[in-house]
Amino acid sequence: MGEQAASEPKNATKSPAGRMKRVGSDEDPGSAPKTAPKPKSKANATSKAGLKSQANTKAGSESRAKPVPKAGAKAKPESHLAMVRRARRINRELAELYPYAHPELDFRNAFELLVATVLSAQTTDLRVNQTTPALFAAYPTPEDMAAAVPEEMEEIIRPTGFFRAKTKSLLGLSAALRDNFDGEVPGRLEDLVTLPGVGRKTANVVLGNAFGVPGITVDTHFGRLVRRWKWTEQEDPVKVEADIAAIFPKSEWTMLSHRVVFHGRRICHARKPACGACPIAPLCPSYGEGETDPEKARKLLKYEMGGRPGQRLSPPPEYPGAPAPALGAG
């Protein structure tokens, strides 16, 4: 650290990404003497100019070798305003990185999205998407599902895990939709959370993607990333939602949720984030928690980022990756 500081020009500063930049001229006009300086010999001027050129070249070389801050480096305390600006910049960067971000559950209507979201607890969206075609073929409406034989439904949704508890929730919410909402999924949060198996997270997923009502979905990926980015220190999902809602305009809530979850599933993994392949690493205060070597980090990328199929069997047309295989197909 000491040798590096000694090699940097005195009138240079580092940007957040570690690049060197000039912040003034070689002589400060405000501190210049009123009398003209003594003339310097041409040889001395040439020699000093050469040394300065070498120093600038070295500084530029060092900056290119360090595109992101060193892992574990201590930063100055960040003000709330600075955090908000950084958070909104991260959101803009994610929007460019994932212009195709979307809910990764297959659905054709609000009822299918509601059921799929309930099934997604403690399993992957891929497993849900591989299971729901048979489920909706057997029970296409709330009335059909409410009349299902529990054992038969359990067998269909067994691959998603916790199939007995999930069957109970699906039978209960379907009966509630039939009896209390004329067989239709309600478009208000206060109504959705009265349904068996439906909490605030599930309600926000349905509202944001089936009704166009902005909402923040705090799942495990979302919570992990917003804490890594220091947007919040809260662990409780409701408190996390409140903190993030205060940072972003309401119009951004739904797409922000998709982008953050996409990033968490593809790059910023729970156990070993791919820091060295992360485009927003210069904005991340937790850079260095994962693999920082670019080549090794690229091997950790998942789904379309890693050249592999996504989670949806029927992804949106703009999705650049391959569809997921059907159940039993691979």
What does this structure look like?
The protein is mostly helical and 330 residues long. A two-stranded antiparallel ribbon has the order 1-2. Residues 1-66 have low confidence and may be disordered. Helix 4 packs antiparallel against helix 10, helix 7 crosses helix 8 and helix 11 packs across helix 13. A hairpin with a 5-residue loop joins strand 1 and strand 2 (20-22). It contains 14 helices and two strands, in the order H-E-E-H-H-H-H-H-H-H-H-H-H-H-H-H. The two termini are 51 Å apart. The protein has helices at 2-7, 42-65, 80-97, 110-119, 125-138, 142-146, 150-157, 163-180, 189-192, 200-210, 220-228, 237-245, 253-266, 294-298, and strands at 12-14, 20-22.
Structural class: mainly alpha
Helix content: 40-55%
Give the number of DSSP strands. 2
Q: What are the secondary-structure elements, in order, as H or E? A: HEEHHHHHHHHHHHHH
From the N-terminal CA to the C-terminal CA, the straight-line distance is 51 Å
Q: What do the pLDDT scores average to?
A: 84
Strand content: under 5%
Low-confidence stretches: 1-66
Largest sheet data: 2 strands, antiparallel
Q: Quick one: overall form?
A: globular
Helices and strands, with pairings:
Blueprint: H1 2-7, E1 12-14, E2 20-22, H2 42-65, H3 80-97, H4 110-119, H5 125-138, H6 142-146, H7 150-157, H8 163-180, H9 189-192, H10 200-210, H11 220-228, H12 237-245, H13 253-266, H14 294-298
Antiparallel strand pairs: 1-2
